[in-house]
Write a structure and sequence with these properties.
- The chain folds into four domains: 94 residues, Glutaredoxin, CATH 3.40.30.10; 210 residues, NADH-ubiquinone oxidoreductase 51kDa subunit (Rossmann fold, 3-Layer(aba) Sandwich), CATH 3.40.50; 83 residues, Ubiquitin-like (UB roll) (Roll), CATH 3.10.20; 88 residues, NADH-ubiquinone oxidoreductase 51kDa subunit, iron-sulphur binding domain (de novo design (two linked rop proteins), Up-down Bundle), CATH 1.20.1440.
- Helix content is 42%, strand content 15%.
- The protein has 24 helices and 16 strands.
Length: 510
């Protein structure tokens, strides 16, 4: 009997380790021979800890479990039990998804390379090994894959620039500095299917001529870092890394580096400075990292999800991947749904669902049962979308047209008790704390923004034009997205909830 209990960080935080220990103890007490696999999460966080058992019909799910539920589960022989949910793949949350990047997450043992290959892993790499670098770049370009870290820059164009640069050494750098609130896709993938990221980085190296890679990860992710470090060791022993990749005679090596928790190091040039052992400060561009990046050499800097999606593109082909999505937003996007929401978790689907379908249909509305007031999309510097904009399709250009950002596709849901002026103030305060200090609009503008919002909160509505001018200066004058994106939550709150800035909503309430 094979039983699965996630070792994903979210599942562990909800008691998965205790459930796993209880399963082992109960099996030993009954003299049963079981195989306990600590897999990744299926993404249904509200059902964690989620236990699955392999049956002839498929994997059956039970959850959310506690250690105290385990004896009764064995008594019922993993059948009729109050926490029984049915076949995992037939749960509405799972059936509605298009899992490409996350196809194996929650399905396999994350550190079993043979199981990874059995479930389709390495097919993309084997195909890439038989192609030229130019052919690989063309395939990725034609797929329409764009950066999933937030900027949405076409991955193939970035690779083509690095491939065309002349240098003795080139690098692939994976940006795993996932610092936005309501984002956890990078962590989930590194914990649940780390080999797909390794495979994607090797393919990127073959495409561009890079032979060395670095994964820049967060110190706040100890489980993901430990799993990924072990995955690198297993991959090296399995011939996926080294001087003779899968017997091809080609070389690629990689290692993981841990950052110290600076939010600004999610910006690629700050990340590169930190990777070099310097202070995490934004670099002026040009030169672009693609030409002068890590140690002054041509460098691809891509997000975890971007690189982990490359094996899908290579194994199934560009046409298969770009058939999903809408407009210039091709393929799938891992939505990370959090905040005051009934069903929070990770949901991978093609671009194009409306924001309302995501919030009300997938998320199930608020956990509090109160009306949804706003949804912040794209992390702490994303815009607030009111229900009036819930018909907006989830896509890069579509969100930009509504003065918003897709970002890393994290959604934080708020009910009607949220104070939007206070949320705007938080955005400015966050920027002031996290600013690297390199440019004046961000360094000083955020501090002045907090002061101006405090004036408005004190009843001085005449400061609103000052706030608007300040946001305009930060948006267009900052060196990087930290200062440049801070106006999005501030101005969206002001635009869609103006009464909360003038005090008229308070007067109406009284």
């Amino acid at each position: 009997m094979r039983i699965y209990v996630p070792r994903d960080s979210a599942a562990k935080a909800l008691g998965a380790d205790d459930v796993a220990k209880a399963v082992q103890a109960e099996a030993a007490r009954r003299g049963l021979d079981i195989t306990l696999t600590r897999n990744g999460t299926r993404g249904m966080v509200w059902l964690e800890p989620l236990l699955e058992v392999q049956t002839e019909d498929g994997r059956r799910a039970f959850g959310p479990l506690t250690a105290a539920d385990v004896p009764a589960l064995f008594d019922a022989e993993f059948g009729d039990h109050p926490k029984a949910l049915g076949l995992t793949d037939e749960l509405p949350w799972m059936m509605g998804q298009t899992r490409l990047t996350f196809a194996r997450v929650g399905v396999i043992d994350p550190l079993d390379l043979a199981e990874y290959e059995h479930h389709g892993g390495l097919a993309g790499l084997r195909k890439a090994l038989a192609m030229t670098g130019e052919q690989i770049v063309t395939e990725v370009t034609e797929s329409g894959l764009r950066g999933r870290g937030g900027a949405g820059f076409p991955t193939g164009i970035k690779w083509k620039t690095v491939a065309g640069a002349q240098a003795e050494q080139k690098y692939i750098v994976c940006n795993a500095d996932e610092g936005d609130s309501a984002t956890f896709a990078d962590r989930m993938l590194m914990e649940g299917d780390p080999f797909t990221l390794i495979e994607g980085m090797v393919i990127a190296g073959l495409a561009t001529g890079a032979t060395k890679g670095y994964v820049y990860a967060r110190s706040e992710y100890p489980d993901a870092n430990a799993v990924f470090a072990e995955a690198i060791r297993v991959a090296r022993e399995g011939g996926l890394l080294g001087t003779d990749i899968l017997g091809s005679g080609k070389t690629f090596e990689m290692e993981i580096r841990i950052g110290a928790g600076a939010y600004v190091c999610g910006e690629e040039t700050s990340l590169l400075n930190s990777l070099e052992g310097k202070r995490g400060v934004v670099r002026a561009k040009p030169p672009l990292p693609a030409l002068e990046g890590f140690l002054g050499r041509p460098t691809v800097v891509n997000n975890v999800i971007s690189l982990a999606t490359v094996p899908v593109v290579m194994s199934h082909g560009a046409t298969f991947y770009k058939d999903f999505g809408l407009g210039r937003s091709r393929g799938t996007i891992p939505l990370q749904i959090a905040g005051n929401v009934k069903h929070g978790g990770l949901y991978e689907c093609a671009f194009g669902l409306s924001l309302g379908e995501i919030v009300e249909g997938i998320g199930g509305g608020t956990a509090s049962g109160r009306p949804v007031k706003a949804v912040q999309v794209g992390g702490p510097l994303g815009a607030y979308f009111p229900p009036a904009l819930f018909d907006t399709p989830f896509g890069y250009e579509e969100f930009a047209g509504a003065d918003g950002l897709v970002g890393h596709a994290g959604l934080t849901i708020f009910d009607d008790t949220a104070d939007m002026l206070e949320m705007a103030r938080f955005a400015m305060e966050f920027c002031a704390i996290e600013s690297c200090g390199k440019c004046t609009p961000c360094r000083i503008g955020a501090v002045r923004g907090v002061e101006t919002l405090e004036r408005i909160a004190g009843g001085d509505a005449s400061a609103i034009p000052i706030l608007t001018d300040l946001c305009n200066t930060m948006k267009f004058g900052s060196l990087c997205a930290l200062g440049g994106f801070t106006p999005y939550p501030v101005m969206s709150a002001l635009t869609h909830f103006p009464d909360e800035f003038t005090g008229t909503h308070q007067e109406a309430a009284e």
